[in-house]
Amino acid sequence: MRVHICAMGRLKGGPEAELIADYVQRFDKTGRALSLGPLTLHQLDDRKGGGMEAEAVLLEKSIPPGAQTIALDERGTRLTSREFAAQLADLRDAGTRDLAFLIGGADGLAAHLRKGSAGALSLGRMVWPHKLARVMLCEQLYRAASILAGTPYHRD
């Protein structure tokens, strides 16, 4: 199952971009034997400043055809790392070819994107900067692959 992160805003460099690159590489390496990956990051810019609806158009264009989507939303479901890993495995085992996580801009995702997604995921009740949300999602994807592979990365 190919995994995509479709996110508003571009990371041009810095520690967040370095962490993301590291976790993407780790996920791809660990996930390969599990039929997970590759992980692709689609970074989008709304240069015209059109708000959530304009961002929604850009996000929709970045979603691979036929992909199932999961919206990142503070009102979404909060999962443990093991529950998240199980959800990824269930989607993979159900034949999902592409899974896209959607991260909106500063105001979040347009309502129709949230409603049209297979689910909504919360990274916690706190609000996180978009750069850190990407890092946290990439880390959790790697952690999920590690859990599914039975490696000692995750310790309960």
What does this structure look like?
The protein is of the alpha/beta class. The chain has a single domain (2-149), classed as SPOUT methyltransferase, trefoil knot domain (Alpha/beta knot). 44% of the residues lie in helices and 22% in strands. The protein contains five helices and five strands; from the N terminus they run E-H-E-H-E-H-E-H-E-H. Strands 2-1-4-3-5 form a five-stranded parallel sheet. Helix 1 links the parallel strand 1 (2-8) and strand 2. Helix 1 (15-31) runs parallel beside helix 5 (130-149) and helix 3 crosses helix 5 (130-149). It is globular and about 45 Å long. The model has no long low-confidence stretch (mean pLDDT 93).
Class derived from helix and strand content: alpha/beta
Q: Secondary-structure element order, as H and E?
A: EHEHEHEHEH
Largest sheet: 5 strands, parallel
Going by CATH, the architecture would be 3-Layer(aba) Sandwich
> Any idea of the CATH topology?
Alpha/beta knot
User: Helix count?
Assistant: 5
Number of domains: 1
Using the CA coordinates, give the radius of gyration. 15 Å
* CATH secondary-structure class: Alpha Beta
Strand content: 15-25%
Mean pLDDT: 93
Q: How is the largest sheet built, in terms of strand order?
A: 2-1-4-3-5
Question: What global shape is seen?
Answer: globular
Topology:
Elements: E1 2-8, H1 15-31, E2 39-44, H2 51-62, E3 68-78, H3 81-93, E4 98-103, H4 111-116, E5 119-122, H5 130-149
Parallel strand pairs: 1-2, 1-4, 3-4, 3-5
